[in-house]
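Hi R.,

Here's the chain you asked about this morning:
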Amino acid sequence: MDSSEDAIRFIYTRIKDFKNPEHLEMWAEWAKIQIGYKKPAHALYNAILRRLQKIEKLRGFTLKEKAHLLFTFSVPLSLAIAEELNKENWTYDLDEKQRIKFFTTEEGVVYKAIHTKSEKWFKGVKLNDKQNTSDIDGCGIETARVQDDSHQMDLHDVFDTETIPEQNESENSQKISLHQWILQIEKFANKLQMSEEFQTKAKKAVVVLSETDEIVPYRDFNDIFRVCLRSITRDSQRIEHGPSLNLQKLLMQIGDHLEKSFEYESMRGAMEVIREECEKLGEEVRKISINTLQTKIDAMMSLLSKTWAECV
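And the predicted structure, written out as tokens:
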């Protein structure tokens, strides 16, 4: 079994009861961490997508499970699977892009959805529902106060605090410049002496985005931030060998940076999840390695920025 099959099996055991279109990129990111996939998250996403596009060759899945995977991840129905569904007299319907918008199982379970990019779910939670997305537990990332056994650095030494976004009327219209954000990541990576490969990637992304910036709505930024930040606590350790960050101070400094550099209302979701994670930690001292943090920054930026994902 190759990594994409392994990831699909991992994902399917967790979505088998879901009845809405899920966010495949986020599932790929979470699967990458859980199964120990070494390449970037977008590489796993592409591998999974290729498998789903030729799902008739996927081993170990029933016809119902294959149809459910295609429905859940909004992948067009292949001719081979369509022939199997017709042969078994399944009731189903497709949209104009040949994606399954309706089908019923032999047990009488009905699946029905309209596939749109603007409405996706992750772990059964609607991503554009501000009340619910804070409950998602997921995949990981961010930056801040740096500390190991011999060195401590304030966040203000790492980030500029002049990244002021466009100010509009609502979270839907407010946007963040990824060029400005990645400039901060580049500076952070340099201060922490992250890998040469990672620093080169950040520099390339800065150069490309200086000419054609990517602008992301705050809602999208907050959704990914909420989903990802929690794994920092999951992957932290009481004792960490090598350069590491004090987790509590890391989270507090992330909050300080967001509050000073961006409007609080726009970042309320991100601030809330930081507060929740700090409360969970309490007085317990935990650390996260710089290598792990580097991996998580790469994962988050791959979700946020197409340019970042393509810089290798």
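DSSP finds 14 helices and eleven strands in the chain.

Let me know if you need anything else.
M.
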